[in-house]
């Protein structure tokens, strides 16, 4: 099989990424948020008056730095998952027929989920203070579901070698 320089580079990037991801797989904890030494202001409280009874309804709005940190970590997770899916595509090219079919099926299932995660990420970027927490929760649920599926597929394909 003749490969162009671009495809060789893409394969090298995918393999490098997958190896670095596999090296970090034995860590049980997720990425930790960045902590700066400068004092950050406390999250501001948003208070709304309920028109019917005048009761106050308070929700915590995220600080700008918290929001930026969350968005940055979310972008990294999306990029990491995309790289894992690309690594599975590369693995499928050289796999046995049965494994190739299973991986292709898994990858076809991941693509709409990746698009959904991207859509929710874009909505999260522009969400107002009132909708931020709900959008963040929905995004987190989507990315956790996709992450579990991709990791399960990666582990099965690695554990079984050429048979699935």
Descriptive notes:
- This protein is 66% helix and 6% strand.
- It has 164 residues and is mainly alpha-helical.
- The protein has a domain at 63-164.
- Helix 1 packs across helix 2 (64-93).
How do the strands and helices of this protein lay out in sequence?
Layout: H1 5-23, E1 45-49, E2 56-60, H2 64-93, H3 97-126, H4 132-160
Antiparallel strand pairs: 1-2
Characteristic terms for this protein:
164 residues; mainly alpha; two-stranded antiparallel ribbon; 4 helices; 6% strand
Structural class by sheet pairing and helices: mainly alpha
Largest sheet, in brief, is:
2 strands, antiparallel
Helical segment count: 4
How are the strands ordered across the major sheet?
1-2
What distance separates the N and C termini? 24 Å
Element string (H = helix, E = strand): HEEHHH
Overall mean confidence score, pLDDT: 73
Helix content: 55-70%
Are there runs of 5+ residues with pLDDT below 50, and where?
Answer: 22-58
Tell me the radius of gyration: 21 Å
Shape: elongated
β-strand number: 2
What is the percentage of strand-forming residues? 5-15%
* Oligomeric state, counting identical vs distinct chains: single chain
In short:
With 164 residues, the chain is mainly α. Helix content is 66%, strand content 6%.
């Amino acid at each position: 099989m003749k490969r162009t320089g671009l495809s060789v580079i893409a394969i090298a990037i995918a393999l490098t990424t997958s190896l670095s991801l596999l090296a970090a797989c034995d860590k049980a904890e997720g990425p930790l948020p960045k902590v700066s030494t400068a004092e950050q202001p406390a999250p501001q409280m948003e208070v709304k008056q309920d028109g019917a009874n005048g009761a106050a309804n308070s929700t915590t709005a995220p600080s700008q730095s918290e929001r930026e940190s969350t968005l940055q970590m979310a972008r990294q997770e999306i990029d990491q998952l995309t790289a894992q899916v690309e690594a599975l595509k590369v693995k499928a090219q050289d796999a046995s027929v049965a494994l190739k079919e299973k991986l292709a099926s898994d990858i076809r299932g991941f693509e709409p989920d990746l698009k959904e995660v991207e859509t929710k990420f874009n909505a999260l970027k522009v969400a107002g203070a009132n909708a931020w927490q709900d959008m963040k929760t929905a995004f987190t649920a989507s990315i956790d579901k996709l992450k579990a599926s991709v990791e399960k597929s990666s582990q099965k394909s690695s554990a079984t070698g050429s048979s699935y």
